């Protein structure tokens, strides 16, 4: 888990939608609970500020960090993935979004970037130059500047092609299931070596968001009946609810903040 990934989760838990900026020393204190060094925290804050994700606010000799509109959008997307989209797709209408592309060898870098962005957006390669994702997906931003090389459309599969076969061909369902099993193994008995539930809350949310962001959100009817995402999501929600009660007082004592204009 990278310091920036942890930072985004920390900001989502304790800064997002609160109209505050947090003192850097407070962040260092919280991250020390999960063995992230002061140097790494300061470097991450500085890097995120330079990338337009955080704004600096000075109050006396102290430096506070607040969210930019860009960071707010990122955190809102994370909140949506955790609490609204969920880990299991139960609303599939039988359609697929298809993205076909052909980029010459001289544009190898653009081709690599497009593949990476498609994978991040929940697409998988069904064959060379053709990627699919269940449901209707807006890929306008992903293919910007590539209109002449990309074709996007929605469709339904037809015999002899089966939806289950498409899902297995385009997505490594065994690897996805294994990641959920790893989460269950790790969190069925939360790590007692961590100092407190604030540390456990931060790591829990970081682990879960990383997991669901790697998940293409395949329709439930295309997956095994014992698909581990179902149990994993229940476990996450149970622990997250518990930590709201136990970690919030610890955070209130640890985090120093100032009010800032919402941006």
From TrEMBL:
Residues 171-249 form the Transcriptional repressor PaaX-like C-terminal domain. Coiled coil: none annotated. InterPro entries: PaaX-like_central (IPR048846), PaaX-like_N (IPR012906), PaaX_C (IPR013225), PaaX_trns_reg (IPR011965), WH-like_DNA-bd_sf (IPR036388), WH_DNA-bd_sf (IPR036390). Residues 90-165 form the Transcriptional repressor PaaX-like central Cas2-like domain. Gene3D superfamilies: 1.20.58.1460, 3.30.70.2650, Winged helix-like DNA-binding domain superfamily/Winged helix DNA-binding domain. Residues 3-70 form the Transcriptional repressor PaaX-like N-terminal domain. PANTHER family: PHENYLACETIC ACID REGULATOR-RELATED TRANSCRIPTIONAL REPRESSOR, TRANSCRIPTIONAL REPRESSOR PAAX. This is PaaX family transcriptional regulator C-terminal domain-containing protein. It comes from Lentzea sokolovensis.
């Amino acid at each position: 888990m990278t310091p920036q990934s942890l930072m985004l989760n920390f900001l989502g838990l304790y800064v997002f939608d609160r109209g505050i900026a947090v003192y850097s020393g407070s962040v260092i204190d919280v991250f020390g609970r999960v063995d992230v060094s002061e140097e790494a925290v300061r470097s991450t804050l500085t890097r995120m500020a330079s990338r337009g994700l955080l704004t600096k606010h000075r109050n006396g000799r102290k430096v506070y960090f607040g969210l930019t509109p860009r960071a707010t959008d990122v955190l809102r997307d994370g909140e949506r993935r955790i609490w609204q989209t969920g880990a299991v797709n139960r609303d599939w209408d039988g359609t697929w979004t298809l993205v076909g592309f052909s980029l010459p060898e001289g544009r190898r870098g653009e081709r690599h970037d497009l593949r990476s962005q498609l994978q991040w957006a929940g697409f998988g390669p069904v064959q060379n130059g053709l990627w699919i994702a269940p449901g209707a997906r807006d890929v306008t931003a992903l293919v910007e500047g590539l209109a002449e090389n990309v074709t996007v459309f929605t469709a339904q599969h037809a015999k002899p092609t089966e939806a289950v076969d498409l899902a297995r061909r385009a997505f490594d369902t065994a690897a996805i299931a294994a990641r959920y099993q790893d989460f269950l193994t790790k969190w069925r008995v939360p790590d007692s070596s961590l100092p407190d539930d604030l540390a456990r809350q931060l790591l829990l949310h970081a682990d879960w968001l990383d997991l669901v962001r790697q998940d293409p959100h395949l329709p439930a009817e295309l997956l095994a009946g014992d698909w581990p995402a179902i149990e994993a999501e229940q476990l996450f929600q149970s622990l997250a609810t518990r930590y709201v009660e136990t970690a919030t007082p610890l955070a209130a004592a640890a985090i120093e903040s100032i009010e800032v204009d919402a941006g």
